[in-house]
Amino acid sequence: MRTYEQARTSVAAAPGRANHSRRTPEPVLHVLQRTAGNRAVGGYLQHSTKRAADSVLQVDEEPESGGADGDFESTAGHGLASPTSVSGGGFGGLDGFAALARPAVSAAAAIQSGGSAPNGMRLGLTTAPSGYKAPQFEFGTVAAMGATAADPPTFTCTPTWKEHMDEGTNVCWYLAAGKHKSITPSGGKDVFIKLSAAMSSLDEQAEREHADDIRQACAISLKEAETVLKDHVVGKTFPSAATATDAQKHVLDAITANLVHAGLGNDQTTWAATYDRLFMKTGLRDARGWHTFGVTGPPAVTATEIVHTVAAGSTSLGATSSADLIVY
Ligand SMILES: [Zn+2]
């Protein structure tokens, strides 16, 4: 029997949907299990660690589909996409300026082919930043001879820049209003996804949340470290000490004392990984179903086409700020 889980959910909730409550992943898992079996559920869980965040269309099994398993596995791809898997996605900086992306309209083929795995039901895609760099400094430790041969040397640090931060680059794509051909046909028919202006706007908002999350992750890790180094470390001459280690501890203590987020720590070798760990938290929005769209009802089926019309599904947008989600 064909049912439309998200469509029913949509009807049961307020028509405006703006205040739709947050949902756990269970309904999604349930739909997967009922319609596509345990393989799909396994795929969903595996995909939860992928390095792409996306908006997906949750549809139930299709009338003519003989291989729903593959479709359903791919519709459940969540998390941020690995940078390598999106390098061929057609994105090129216009002028080589490296920066995090803001939402932009892109073709369904690019959105659905990108990310960690192709997904014919993907409506939007934001990838994990690649090429990012944490700021790095040299301690600039200098030994000074004692006043006489009998006096021990002393050590002093005057740190210098080794490398400035780079937030990296990524893509952030959503679908324009209109009828888009999916990359995955079904039962010999072309599959289309139709979005109203309102649904395209929700789709943009979903990807904007990922973009904002990644910026927040950068602000409280790489940028914070860069600012502390610039304002309190690089170019300053720290008090001398009896050993190089003690002299460098003065530098590390200055970093610690000036951090806004203590969780960042004073170890510059960990800052890049901290940024990565923080921006990956944006995938929670997908895992919790906040970016899972539904359909308005059964698809319109003709001799050659299957057309799904997008509904808000279990989406919950604008309810959780980046500052609340991306935390140490
Ligand atoms: Zn998403």
UniProtKB/TrEMBL annotation:
Region: Disordered, residue numbers: 1-25, 58-83
Protein name from the UniProt record: Uncharacterized protein
